[in-house]
Amino acid sequence: MPQEFSHTTVLLEEAVSALVADPDGFYVDGTFGRGGHSERILSRLSNTGRLMAIDKDPAAIRHAETCFADEPRFQICHGSFSELQHFVEAAGMSEQVAGILLDLGVSSPQLDDPDRGFSFLNDGPLDMRMDTSRGESAADWINRAGEGEIADVLFTYGEERFSRRMAKAIVNARQESPITRTARLASIISEANPRWEKGKHPATRAFQGIRIHINRELEDIEQVLEQSLNVLAVGGRLVVISFHSLEDRLVKRFIRKHVKGDEHLPPGIPVTQEMLQQRLKAEGKAVKASAAEVQANPRARSAVMRVAVKTA
């Protein structure tokens, strides 16, 4: 039996309290993980409330099928949250969703299991796929991509300023033998990094960039945000927890865009609220984890939660 790795859910109370306004409603947990948010959402629902959960990771699906097998209000869907609209329409609940929760990024069980290939601290096969049943692994990509493509991924998604040096080192190293292990890739990147940041592993940004690219994380976020407007009921709530600036920037811009409404109306004509097509209202300010939560779970330090309500 595969080893189970623990996961501490970040902003648990804050997220579920912001999400569940109607205990009889139909909700979506777009990032099931190990079910921390789902379990708390279900505890807030009535007997007629329902919860659909989605996850890419086959290990998360197995966990859901085992731990929530006797819960009639719950269903789990294997796939990306970028397929949100498809799953909701298949359930016959389009424009009837009371709330959507997205807890973005990689989960602790994925990070902590060396066999998943996300970690630069523990050696394992260089995989990094959240969905191990499909798609190109990090090893497949790192051994075929051109130097320019690798540099662009490290710079764009990892915000790594030494991306070109690292890409060159990767291409040179793979000519000797294919790069198939996380420890070897971390060593190559570390040696190519001339300025190590205090308290941060020199391969941190590069591994982040590769992971985001392999899993299409930012593209999936853009798609699920747009689809959320198609499936939420008026008054439905969107709750998103981000863990780095690239994710949070997308969420913040999306909410701001739909709070302001249509900015392309011709100048000089009277504009009504209806013409602006303002579809969201921001709910309060961004929420961060408390000092006590960060002390108990250091991974909560970078978490930012934003909440919006569909208005039209």
TrEMBL record:
User: Which residues, by range, are in coiled-coil regions?
Assistant: none
Q: Which family does it belong to?
A: Belongs to the methyltransferase superfamily. RsmH family.
Cited Pfam families: Methyltransf_5
Catalytic activity as recorded in UniProt: cytidine(1402) in 16S rRNA + S-adenosyl-L-methionine = N(4)-methylcytidine(1402) in 16S rRNA + S-adenosyl-L-homocysteine + H(+)
Q: InterPro entries per the record?
A: RsmH, SAM-dep_MeTrfase_MraW_recog, SAM-dependent_MTases_sf
* Database matches in NCBIfam families: 16S rRNA (cytosine(1402)-N(4))-methyltransferase RsmH (TIGR00006)
Q: What gene is behind this protein?
A: rsmH
Q: Could you state one GO biological process linked to this protein? A: methylation
What subcellular locations does the record give?
A: Cytoplasm
Q: What does this protein do?
A: Specifically methylates the N4 position of cytidine in position 1402 (C1402) of 16S rRNA.
A molecular function annotated in GO for this UniProt entry is: methyltransferase activity
Q: What is this protein called?
A: Ribosomal RNA small subunit methyltransferase H
Gene3D superfamilies in alphabetical order: Putative methyltransferase TM0872, insert domain (1.10.150.170), Vaccinia Virus protein VP39 (3.40.50.150)
Q: What is its EC number?
A: 2.1.1.199
Keyword set, alphabetical order? Cytoplasm, Methyltransferase, rRNA processing, S-adenosyl-L-methionine, Transferase
Residues noted as binding S-adenosyl-L-methionine in the record, renumbered to the chain: 35-37, 55, 81, 103, 110
